[in-house]
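ping. complex inputs:
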Amino acid sequence: MMRSGDPYDVLVIGGGLAGLSAAHHAALRGLSVASLDDGGHMGGLVMNVGRIDGYAAAGAVSGIELAAAQLEAIVELGVEIVPDRAAGLTLDGGIVAVTTGSGVHRAKTVVLASGARLKSLGVPGEQALFGRGVSQCADCDAGFFVDQKIVVVGGGDAALQEALHLSDYVSGITLVTRGDALRAKQSYVALAADNPKFEFRWSTQVTEILGGDGVEGVRVTPAGGVDAQEIACSGVFVFVGLEPSVCTLPDNIERNANGFIVTDPNFQTSVPGVYAVGAVRAGYSGQLASAVGEAAAAIAGLRIV
Ligand SMILES: Cc1cc2nc3c(=O)[nH]c(=O)nc-3n(C[C@H](O)[C@H](O)[C@H](O)COP(=O)(O)OP(=O)(O)OC[C@H]3O[C@@H](n4cnc5c(N)ncnc54)[C@H](O)[C@@H]3O)c2cc1C
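pong. complex structure:
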């Protein structure tokens, strides 16, 4: 029985699928668990995914359905839900103190599962036109672009998955990528290559998003000294990778050059009692199945006294 003021056995920072899974497995072990999320609605990146791919257990389920089922399961198991942002954590002997707007929460073990954010391009026009033609959510915004021409920026799984979804709505997609080939799953690449709505601009960077009240086009610069060109479109979807979402961490928690948290094979960081799983972790595969598996493995290895 946990008494007021006792530290939690496990405090999970982040309520995406990695964090929800960590909380679930910890609660199944009978540990006292709190789950902290800053979003107001939990679920993280999958909340914008209309049809989860590559996660057989989910069948043809949406990200929202998957996250809702996982949240329901942890609530039933008695996990305390704390709808607040972790500002930072400090180490105090064997206890980790996590600071939030609603106070300080103490735990014997902390699991960092704060995930990642979609990167922006950082070009002129992008911020001003966000929500007025610039988007990072195909599932939310596809309906605004029926029979219109759009640009999708990026060449990885997320860009291709979202572009394929958008192709059911729009009249044409110009996919602009810095690389000279796609880095996505072969199944996505094959579908896009066979789809007459797709046009590809290889080795090309978007340097500006053009428009007034809404998007009217993009300025692009191909590699090799070719002059800048304009592509007319009414929507721009940006999927150019992820950057970690990390609260203020003690300096002795090792991170890689891009800010992702480094762990050992048991998902422990360089500080005992602090673990990292899912998209915030250096070396994460990018797949939901790994996020869930990492969370289960990290919790299975805990020795709580
Ligand atoms: C467009 C797109 C499509 C995708 N499609 C698929 C797919 O079909 N199949 C698949 O397997 N994978 C897919 N993925 C990848 C998958 O969504 C991610 O790998 C997975 O969701 C990562 O989960 P996570 O819990 O580690 O992180 P996240 O989902 O990023 O969750 C992190 C959570 O932590 C919260 N948080 C952040 N900072 C703090 C803080 N300081 N305090 C408290 N809370 C905080 C965030 O609000 C968020 O709720 C897709 C990704 C994208 C971008």
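The chain has a mean pLDDT of 94.
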